[in-house]
Specification:
- It comes from Streptomyces yokosukanensis.
- The chain has a domain of about 250 residues: Amidase signature (AS) domain (Amidase signature (AS) enzymes), CATH 3.90.1300.10.
- Helix content is about 35%, strand content about 15%.
- It is built from 14 helices and 17 strands.
- The strands form four sheets. It has an eleven-stranded mixed sheet, sandwiched between helices.
- Helix 5 packs parallel to helix 6 and helix 9 crosses helix 12.
- The chain is globular.
Length: about 475
């Protein structure tokens, strides 16, 4: 029997029933990687010997009567997470030999849950691209069309799941890095509420694995079903035991509703700063139609929605001001010179990105204060609604574009070109205020490529968009293996 495309939940049931062993699952997954990954290049650091040993241990543990959430289930891990004994490079050539001494906290949680780690998945240089390619490990191709990107920065994880290489994966997200690859590859992902899942050990090498949480960035689960996202989030969620975990225990509230007809949803298909392509709009409307058909209350407009343009500008400021914090002094001074030459009338996202790169501390504090106002606006919004349905990016997966000048890259939306990084505005809608967002497949584009949407929910109520994702999977279907 082919187990490689089964959900983690199905594998756990089969393992408990004795229908299959972890060794069998692991050998089958490794065989698929060795057979198919040359064309995809999702698994950049295989760890097959230790995976087989872990599978044997899992089978022995189960024979002793043990049962853990992921016991014996093959998974993968984004390259940027520290795994003792494997390199962590963040795709930076100067760090190709860096070997961390201990596991990231999320890797430790996978081990404690009994997961079998097959290896690490590919990323872009410094995790700073919407694609996954680099000088060390090469390019990850989209399993649906090898001439297109699998997304970034968790592109290797999404491509691995779509290809049947493991049932689950862990990634990270600051600019859609979980959601965009899921959208491009036709799988599921969940960007948790900011701070919900500890990220110690997900740090650029050779930096120490300190228990510090970066602004905007989150660790999160990826899977081939919505229920599997919840399974993995329950393993990942919780404060770092070295800091907040000393005093606090996690208790996520239940989903607001169990029936589709009880949900109150705002549907957005267009952003004021960049259009959504026809394929993406069609995906949004497939979900909207399913919600209406299921009896949900669906609205297209609300005065409670925080201003999308200001939200995008704030997100741009907070994101790009942090991205240059470790730039060499010479490069930073060049940015200051360029920013000083901008016209005050230039209010484009390109100009805002440049200004943000040379923010003063005073500038950042002001942006952060405005973020708190947006968070308050979202609290008021979610008193009247349960979720927002909207695009993840304006297009399905686009052709590989490795132009080293990122400012010269363009994104083609129905035949019209836009600045490459403008596509991040949809990712920023949930990221800037720290809201949870679940990426779900909605079907295929006119060219047969996967199309997804995100379900944004209230802060710390991650189970609400996750439950909505489960109900939509039942209503419109979910993951399909690449044709």
């Amino acid at each position: 029997m082919d187990w490689n495309f089964r959900t983690a939940e199905e594998l756990a049931t089969a393992l408990r029933a004795g229908d299959v062993t972890s060794v069998e699952l692991t050998d089958e997954a490794i065989a698929a990687i060795e057979r198919d990954d040359e064309a995809i290049n999702a698994i950049c650091v295989p760890d097959f010997d230790r995976a087989r040993a872990a599978a044997r241990d899992a089978d022995q543990a189960r024979a002793r009567g043990e049962d853990r959430p992921l016991l014996g289930i093959p998974v993968t891990v984004k390259e940027s997470y520290n795994i003792a004994g494997l390199p962590t490079t963040w795709a930076m050539p100067q760090q190709r030999d860096y070997m961390p001494a201990e596991d990231a906290v999320q890797v430790s949680r996978l081990r404690a849950a009994g997961a079998v780690m097959l290896g690490k998945t590919n990323v872009p240089l410094g995790l700073q691209d919407v694609q996954s390619f680099n000088e060390i490990y090469g390019t990850t191709n989209n399993p649906w069309d090898h001439g297109r990107t699998a997304g970034g920065s968790s592109g290797g994880s999404a491509a691995a799941l779509a290809s049947g290489f493991g049932a689950l994966s862990i990634g990270s997200d600051i600019a859609g890095s979980l959601r965009t690859p899921a959208h491009f590859c036709g799988v599921y992902a969940h960007k948790p509420t900011l701070g919900l899942a500890a990220s110690r050990g997900m740090v650029p090498p050779p930096g120490p694995a300190l228990p510090a949480e970066a602004d905007l960035a989150v660790a999160g689960p990826m899977a081939r079903s919505a229920r599997d996202l919840t399974l993995l989030l329950d393993v990942m969620a919780g404060p770092d035991p070295l800091t907040l975990g000393v005093a606090y225990d996690l208790r996520l509230p239940p989903a607001r509703h169990e029936r589709l007809g009880d949900f109150r949803v705002l549907v957005l298909e267009q952003h004021p700063l960049i259009p959504s392509g026809a394929d993406v709009r069609a995906g949004v409307n497939r979900v909207a139609d399913a919600l209406v058909d299921g009896g949900a209350r669906v609205e297209r407009h609300s005065p409670l929605l925080p201003d999308l343009t200001e939200a995008a500008m704030l997100y741009t400021q907070l994101l790009f001001s942090s991205q240059v914090a470790r730039f060499p002094v010479e490069a930073y001074e060049q940015l200051r010179t360029r920013a000083a030459g901008l016209s005050a009338d230039d209010q484009s996202l390109d100009a805002e990105r440049l200004r943000a790169m040379v923010f003063s501390h005073r500038d950042w504090i002001e942006a952060n204060n405005r973020r708190e106002l947006h968070r308050h606006g979202w609290r008021q919004f979610f008193a009247a609604f349960d979720a927002v349905v909207c695009p993840i990016t304006p297009t399905p997966a686009f052709p590989h574009d490795h132009d080293p000048d990122l400012r010269a890259r363009r994104i083609d939306i129905d035949g019209v070109e836009y600045p490459y990084f403008d596509q991040l505005v949809w990712a920023g809608l949930a990221t800037m205020p720290g809201l949870p967002a679940t990426a779900v497949p909605t079907g295929r584009s006119a060219e047969g490529l996967p199309v997804g949407v995100q379900l944004i929910g209230p802060m710390y109520e991650d189970r609400t968009p996750l439950r909505l994702a489960e109900l939509l999977e039942e209503k419109i279907g979910g993951f399909e293996a690449p044709k």
